[in-house]
Amino acid sequence: MYMKYLKASLLVVVCFLTACGGKVDHHGKTPLVEVDGTFLYKEDLKASMPIGCSKEDSLLFAENYIRNWIEDILLYNKAKNNISESQRIEDLVQNYRKSLIIHEYQQKLINQELTANLSDDEMMAFYNNNKELFKSDETLLKGLYIKVPLKDSNLDKVRIWYKKKDETSIDHLEKCSLMSAVDYIYFYDHWVPVSMLLSRLPDKKNDMEKLLLEKRHIELKDSLYCYFINIDDVLMRGENKPYDAAADEIKEIMINMKQAEFMRNMKNDLYERALEKKDIKYYY
């Protein structure tokens, strides 16, 4: 009964404001609530809505969100009219805004300049000199995984194809993945955590990880599907990561190391240019 009342109340609010909204340009948005000339829009409420909510939970969330929004606007307006140090607050806001803009610009420059100028040779040299920094915190695998319905007409062929790495077999498996396979992962060319594969297998026993590490060709099944895994390479937990598995970490570390010097040089360059153009004027 409460939910029906809530739904009806929200509908009345929307209908009322839609009828009254012709005096204001809402830039294509749909107004839900107005408080002292400030509007809450349907699109903003929808963007804040948690994904996967039931109909009842969505209505309850909408009611709470609208109520909190109204209270915040009312409290802000009350505070604004009772705070005398408005200039100090404006200064704080401007300083915070300036800091945010500088930070965003720095990150954009760092991503553009440092990432682009980071060569593979430089990254490889750093890796070779610091291998002890890159240890795997989880067992990693390379290989192939495919999940096929038990009744699939190609099941016996898949049983042969998945054990091979040749181009023809891989091509057959990829076509099968498009036509009938339920799940397919090709990871001969990159490392994946063993937990990712375990989450896809029917047997969740503790010895399943041991099976993945001890065998190269694994076939499992349940009442509906067959699961085929070909393990090509294994990196145990605690071992040094190979370069291809550590590349993202290497890049992040090297960028962090270089960004302080990069920003110092950039600020100094801006300062020198401003002096040259006489954009800086000292009054002392």
Could you explain how this protein is built, in words?
With 284 residues, this protein is α+β, with helices and mostly antiparallel strands. The protein contains 10 helices and 6 strands, in the order αββααααβααβααββα.
The main sheet comes to:
4 strands, antiparallel
State the total count of DSSP E strands.
6
Q: Give the overall silhouette.
A: flat
Biggest sheet: strands side by side, in what order? 4-3-6-5
**Overall structural domain count:** 3
What is the ordering of alpha helices and beta strands? Answer: HEEHHHHEHHEHHEEH
Spans of at least 5 consecutive residues with low confidence: 1-9, 15-21
CATH class annotation of the largest domain: Alpha Beta
Distance between the termini: 74 Å
Report the average pLDDT across residues. 84
CATH 2nd-level architecture of the largest domain: Roll
Return the structural class: alpha+beta
